[in-house]
Amino acid sequence: MQREPTGRVHRTGEHSYNLVLTRRLAGTPSEVWTSFTDARQAAAWIGRWDGAPGPGAEFDFQLLYEEGQPTSPARLSQCIPRERLRVLMEDDGGSWDVEVRLRDDDGGTRLEFIQHLAVPAPAEDTGPGWEYYLDRLEAARAGAAPPEFDQHYLDQGPYYAAQARDAAAAPPPA
């Protein structure tokens, strides 16, 4: 489990930002891929879906470790097996555009988890949440007990708020 925040907020355009969390995981990209695409494995760390997700598919996604276990309509907007997965979701909190990129990293897998944002401010809240879910992913892959969402994650909010402020102040890339 990561004790320090792993995410960074980057300005990517005039009105676009990325919150990027990076982890190195044991296993090949193919093995890590199943943690996202196999319904049973995904349910162990983030949630479940109804339907058959595939490129362009629409399905219902339920976050199992959020208060009320909300279900959101989702669409798989990009899928390159064992490399990239991008999902668009809608819920009471708004729109979510999240992407997972996997690549071989000297016998393990480098995972980049990206939340695409129109404004950087939500990173203050979502950064700690994604840290929690990625810690859950690591625990599930290791067969370890999952972490509890506790003060450790809440204490990361100021870090992500500073990241968001810095990204907002940065000039758009040329």
TrEMBL record:
It comes from Arthrobacter gandavensis. This is Activator of Hsp90 ATPase homologue 1/2-like C-terminal domain-containing protein. InterPro entries: ASHA1/2-like_C, START-like_dom_sf. Residues 28-139 form the Activator of Hsp90 ATPase homologue 1/2-like C-terminal domain. Belongs to the AHA1 family. Pfam families: AHSA1.
